[in-house]
# Entry
Amino acid sequence: MPGGDFHPFFFVVIAAWILICGLGVVLFRKIVYSAVSMVFCFLGVAMAYALLNAELVAIIQILVYVGAISVVILFAIMLTEVQGDQFTLFFNRQTVFAAPVAVATCVILAVMLVSSEMTGVGEASLNLSVRELSELLFNRYVFPFELVSLVLLGAMIGAIVLARGEGEKR
Amino acid sequence: MADANNSVLVILPGIVIACTALLVFMADTFVGRRKEILPWIAAAGLVAAAAVAAAQWLDVDELGSLWDLVTGRGSAVFGGREGEAGFAGMVALDKFAFYCTLLFCVIGVLTIMLSDAYMKKRRDAMGEFYGLLLLVIAGMFGMAVSTDLIALFIAFELMSLPTYVLAGFLRGDVRSGEAAVKYFVNGAFSSAVLVFGLALLYAASGQTNYAGIAEAMSGLGADAESGLTVVALVFVAVGFGFKIAAVPFHGWAPDVYEGAPTPVTAFMSVGIKAGAFVGFLKLFTIAAVGLGDIWTAALTVLAVLTMVVGNALALPQRNLKRMLAYSSIAHAGYLLLGLIATGASLDSAGSSAVLFYLGAYTFMNIGAFGILVWIRNRRAFRYGLDEVAGLARTMPWTAIGMALFMVSLTGIPPLVGFWGKFYLFTAIVDAGMTWLAIVAVVMSAVSAYYYLRVVWYLYFREAPEGAEVVADDAGPALGSAVAVTLAALGVLALGLYPSPLISAAQGALRVLIGG
Amino acid sequence: MLAPALGALVEYADRPLSPSTVPGRRAGPTIHMTSEYLTNWFYVWSFIVSGAVLVVLILLVSKLVNPSHPTPGKLAHYECGIPPVGSPWSPFAVRYYVFALLFLVFDVEAVFLFPWTLVFRTLGTAGFIEMMLFVAVLVWGLVYAWRKGALEWA
# Structure
């Protein structure tokens, strides 16, 4: 863990929460249950951010992921013609290959994170106040910030293109 | 924001492209039925952006001394230099970016012309198509100028997101939808992997700025090659590997290239690949220049796999679009050689060979896909190899063009494809990895089989029954014909006289790596 | 009862840390967990927990307390029109999706507005222009959607 100073008990609880909800996403047979499980997973991640002193990110996580993305996902489920419990996992045949790869990736990442010290990241950047973060966003990182508006524009127009039927004329 | 004016100047070509995209979107809602003005607006915007970049480039060349470089391993390359960097080192408009901007504009204009045959039948969607295309090109520009991890990632997303939509542009077509979904899922995954790698790179160095990362890494000395940096660089390489369709991250490419509308396929195989390579090149040769050993090893594996598998899988393909998709994978493998050469020798020859190859590849591949668009415009065509049999008799000029692009893709002199491969392979030999060059040459020989087989079909096979010229309802698409002609001229002219492009590519790289 | 528990929690968080025991590992950066931090979050946490407990409690109590003697007559629909036929699960019109996505896009935009308001005064005119550009691009998209008829319901 980077740091190791934050309350281990809280961290374990939140990590378990995220893991359980994440498993729920992939294991539930009903896709709506998976979606709701994912909402709770998002909440857990927000709590993890809060625990790491990243209040702004936690709030963004709740506003965007819990508030908006989950709605979009539920909408997407309702758009499809998947009937309640007829949904079956279609990746099953690849489990044999996917599972070892996933486990290996996990092990490598865990070993790497435990064994390396992240000396490059200074104390100041880990304990940034929301105000300092905002200053950074609108001064130093203004170029990516403006690029984000173009990305959002692309997403918006892409959605319009894809949602419009081929035959509809305008 | 004391340097606001300067910063705006630095990204001026990108601003022109983005504003043109906005203009195209808005014009779309005002022109009513006269949609055919939209591609002209889009193309004019790209030409204007290219003109701005070219003017800035000339301006920079006069001030040559400003742009000279601090040489040496791991040293900060162009961070902190006033006049070229903007937004507090977030972007840098150097000769590298100029070259890339011009290249992207050429790709964009060729794609716009090429899509003439295809958009004629879908006039209602013209605004979205050209606007989204311009947004992608703006993202590619962002990749070329970014010198910061965060800017790089947002530009990467701007480049990717509208492309998913373009791949699925044929709304009624199942295969196009499949292409969009496959591309989106793979692309989203690759973005996640990439951003994770970038985050680890930040964790290892504490910097988001390329120059800052290089500095922090050289400050760490031997500690820099820790598990953290290895994993970070591998994740970044995997993220980019998906975008450039390097084996084993190529799984999506054949289906997506086959299902997407052909002009979009041409654009993806050239533009997205160029954009990703440019970002890759800039990140690795500046930020991770001191860690060349790590990423050279990772990329060598990728390159060998990509060349061997890409060419081997192209052999049995009898669908031309699919064959070109696999060939495009194989070409990503050749391109990786240039990066490896740079990482192994810290010499800019490999990277400038990549830039040259991207330019050469633009003409040959857009041309090859353009021929497919053109044939389909003139008669019924499902991209089958058998369907082009005997084409030399019915459409002699088209057959000549097709043969030209195939020969150039094989890398036979005196066409531009030969020079591209020549510089790449020379660079890798100079970097002391002759065995890789041998693999590449052998694989090029293999590729000759499936490229020249097309030529064989064109000239020495009888036309199948009932294959007569049936013109498209919408009439001949002049734009597509012009695009193919320009690409053919480019392949020929640059093949016979490649030095301008070569010197441009070499000049562009002098800024990146001291050399 | 809460105060001593909170005190103990704060004491635990502020405890002196033993130096890192991993050999060859330099002490990395630390994330500070001050008592102020804990008390601030304590209210948030207690709000979340008590909210969740309350919901479960009410449902549980009503389940335990209410009498349940179901008969077919009781389970039948009561003055709710004709009994439904088929699955209630029918796909939505794709049109709704555009609205959901527009909502998402403007939600993300709103998220950027919050930190902007915090530093609005220190940023000055440049900050104002930055945000106006950002908003203008998105409004441009909205106007486009509007003029294209993507917002029309029918």
Summary: Residues 1-5, 166-170 of chain A have pLDDT under 50 and may be disordered. The interface with chain B takes residues 2, 108-109, 111-112, 115-116, 118-122, 125, 139-144, 147-148, 150-151, 153-155, 157-158, 160-162, 164-166, 169-170 of chain A (CB under 8 Å). Helices of chain A lie at 8-27, 31-51, 55-79, 95-115, 123-126, 130-139, 142-163.
